[in-house]
Amino acid sequence: VLSFIIFICYIASLAASFMMAPLLEFLLALFLFFAYASKLNEKFKGVHWPLADFLRCVTAAIIYFAISIAAVSKYSDGASKAAGVFGFAATIVFAIDFYITFNDLVTFLKQGSSDCPEGRKAEDEDSDSDSD
């Protein structure tokens, strides 16, 4: 929702060149929301969903911080200032989401790494290789 508000502010401002970043972030967040809601993360096991969400949070926080500084310092109209303030708020929200998602990602990777040695041992025992 915050990304959509920032997108609308940038459309109404002189800093309309920055409108693409919030739009893409909004669409990506919408896609991930529907992917989790429709259980796509359970159907497509090859995609590392926590990693995708983690990368989205990191890039969004960095991009929102950069364009917010540019919008507040370079443009003087009210809509640009509002977009910049909302952008700083979005930076904080995405940083918090980054922290939460990072903890989920660590848990996800620990579960994956505990399964790997058992799978490798089974593969090694079943191999007919004479390289020993």
Automatic annotation (TrEMBL):
Residue ranges occupied by any MARVEL domain in the UniProt entry = 1-106
The UniProt transmembrane annotation reads 7-37, 49-71, 83-102
Its placement in the membrane is given as: Multi-pass membrane protein
Q: Where in the cell is it found?
A: Membrane
Q: Where mainly located?
A: membrane
Q: Might you report a single GO cellular component term?
A: membrane
- State the residue spans of region: Disordered: 113-132
Please provide the record's keywords in A-Z order. Answer: Membrane, Transmembrane, Transmembrane helix
Instruction: State the PANTHER family in the record.
Output: CKLF-LIKE MARVEL TRANSMEMBRANE DOMAIN-CONTAINING PROTEIN 3, MARVEL-CONTAINING POTENTIAL LIPID RAFT-ASSOCIATED PROTEIN
What is this protein's name? CKLF3 protein
Q: Which species is the source of this protein? A: Orthonyx spaldingii
